[in-house]
Design brief:
4 helices; alpha+beta
Length: about 220
């Protein structure tokens, strides 16, 4: 699936000054065991100034009191998951590192986000707070992408790309087995202009290194 424009909350920076990315953590909650794979998406309130109405994985910025490094990202991930979806993870070590995405330098509001996987704990059911998040859905990665293609599910670029990766796995167990011990390297997409259209490129795609979509 090709994404050729920044989504809500990904507006381009017109000041000429590159913003420092804020540390953040996101949790991809899974269910299905060894039989299926569904992921939890929550909808941000349409009233939010940043990414209002968009469907995302639960997550948010790291608080300064949570420290630095991997421990801080795990603590923030657990806190955000509890706040946004009422899911309690008793041990941050249960989170499985999956990816790290840095918002393009060309975007006004930037995050350095660490993505984690975790199975839905037994006996728990997600619940939105009705304030920051107003709805939730369990979807297969492919069903989420199809809903996006029909304009039924507003998504942003990192969520789309993660759903594309997740759609390659047939079960939650298979995905977790793949992710454990994975060497996670940062990914920083790049926004390039094609006429008046902003295109988002990933490392390795034609034009990424030179910032030229026609390459």
């Amino acid at each position: 699936m090709q994404v050729d424009r920044p989504g809500p909350g990904e507006e381009l920076n017109t000041s000429g000054t590159v913003a420092e990315p804020r540390q953040a953590a996101t949790v991809i909650v899974l269910r299905g065991g060894d039989r299926a794979l569904e992921v939890l998406l929550v909808q941000r309130t349409p009233a939010a100034r940043f990414m209002g109405g968009v469907w995302v994985f639960p997550g948010g910025a790291v608080d300064s009191a949570e420290g630095e490094g991997d421990t801080a990202h795990r603590v923030a991930a657990v806190r955000e998951l509890q706040e946004e979806a009422a899911i309690t993870i008793d041990d941050p070590a249960r989170l499985v590192r999956f990816s790290r995405w840095i918002t393009p330098a060309q975007v006004a509001i930037r995050f350095d986000t660490h993505f984690f996987l975790v199975e839905l704990p037994a006996g728990q059911e997600p619940r939105v707070d009705g304030s920051e998040c107003v709805d939730l859905r369990w979807l297969t990665p492919r069903a989420a992408l199809e809903a996006y293609a029909r304009d039924d599910l507003p998504l942003v670029f990192p969520t789309i790309k993660h759903l594309e990766q997740l759609s390659a796995f047939g079960s939650a167990s298979e995905l977790l087995a793949h992710a454990r011990g994975r060497d996670v390297q940062p990914v920083e997409p790049r926004v390039v202009m094609e006429g008046e259209v902003a295109r988002v490129l990933l490392p390795g795609e034609p034009g990424y290194e030179r910032g030229d979509v026609s390459a």
